[in-house]
Write a structure and sequence with these properties.
Number of domains of chain A: 2
Number of strands of chain A: 10
Oligomer: homodimer
CATH architecture of the largest domain in chain A: 3-Layer(aba) Sandwich
CATH topology of the largest domain in chain A: Rossmann fold
Largest interface: A-B, 85 and 85 residues
Number of helices of chain A: 7
Chain lengths: 224, 224
DNA sequence: CCATGTGAAGGTATTCACAGCC
DNA sequence: GGCTGTGAATACCTTCACATGG
């Protein structure tokens, strides 16, 4: 059935499929079955078919999915079919690493500017991007940027996000380990690296010292 | 009711509560209500109470939760009640940033070693940790390390994880953008930064160019 | 009274099994 | 024969409403 609402969990998996398809496309094959893609990306084949079923029929029965076409379609759905400009705020260790991070290009994401309040850092050029003073965030209004990555200390996160929201940024990836709020028109996704690592010990099978008896090995959902 | 299985989604939120409690403890208060904690961490109050209900009665009706006691209890459940040693493999830009990342300590996580194959990097000291040759991963067997962070290129991820599994690592946080497999006794959580950023455009309310009509503003689950 | 803890209801996502089509 | 697409069944999680206890 076409055009049901796409579940959030499906949206979460679409980039995984896209990543797999982009790598898979290099292998020279033209079509791929849900089973083959499943093996490649680590999701069950029926889950893949179900996910794809939410937005029409891309597959050919008996053949599989046309890799190129499917990748294009997923990009369209995720709105990754245009180059999108992003900026980085907070050029600390993590921020610098993100500026040099090669993975964004594959999704059509392009970091075009970086900001920091530290005079020592302003003027530095990292991976072709010049670090500007944070006060110049205001100039973003006219630069056609829709995305921002926030890698500032916790105490500066909320004010940074307020500022970005004011100048028309519409999506923010936040690395600061705290709750932040933004206007409805701005979507924020938060990523707390330490928290992810902190989740690991719970799932590690017993084997060290005193262990509690609760941890179920269940996890149907997102294994990671 | 005590001792039902703890839902995965609850486990995912426990570190959020812990983070909030640790910050909140500094404010001098001794007790906190589910409502106050809810406002602070950005989760609904009944969700918090439900989550806590899976592992016994920590609260006092009419008063709230004892911050110190609750934090200790959450740490115990997440098995963060001991200092855990972690290692980093892959000292590139991201790896270096992670070595300097100050957030792990709060959860009792301590990065005690780092590995890379690049001779240029071996011997360097970052944040008090000396970079060793990757061949020395084998020496981990006797160093009492249970966690590893993998920040190597995609092509090296699987072999790195195989190696870590062999020497007794039991939990891995993987930053390489690909599917990886590990023995059952090893829990892997994967984090693909570019993929998170790629998820943003889908959720950004219309306002630019041609937009598709599907994006529901639903998202009951994890807003981020 | 105030705030917790929890059955019950409601909603969402996963999993199955197979009809339908190439 | 092989593979997709999907209703139905199942499992899980969220949300509500209120009994229960300090």
């Amino acid at each position: 059935m076409r055009y049901r609402r796409i579940p959030d969990e499906t949206v979460r998996r679409l980039p995984i499929y896209l990543r797999g398809l982009m790598v898979s496309a290099d292998h020279g094959r033209e079509h791929i079955s849900s089973q083959a893609l499943a093996d490649f990306v680590g999701v069950q084949s029926w889950q893949i078919r179900k996910d794809f079923s939410y937005f029409g029929d891309f597959g050919t029965r008996g053949v599989g999915y046309h890799i190129e076409k499917l990748a294009r379609e997923i990009k369209r759905i995720l709105r990754l079919d245009v180059i999108r400009k992003a900026v980085l705020v907070g050029v600390g260790d993590l921020g610098s690493a993100l500026l040099s991070y090669p993975g964004f290009g594959g999704y059509g994401l392009d970091i075009v500017a970086a900001f920091d309040i530290d005079p020592q850092k302003i003027g530095a050029v990292i991976n072709g991007v010049c670090v500007e003073d944070s006060s110049r965030i205001d100039t973003l209004r006219d630069r056609g940027v829709s995305l921002a990555i926030v890698a500032v200390p916790r105490t500066a996160a909320q004010s940074t996000i307020d500022r970005l929201a004011q100048v028309g940024i519409r999506g923010i990836l936040n690395f600061a380990p705290c709750k932040v709020i933004a206007p409805h028109r701005v979507k924020v996704i938060s990523l707390d690296i330490a928290m992810e690592l902190a989740r690991l010990p719970y799932y590690m099978p017993a084997g060290g010292a005193g262990e509690h008896p609760l941890a179920g090995r269940s996890s149907r959902h997102r294994a990671s």
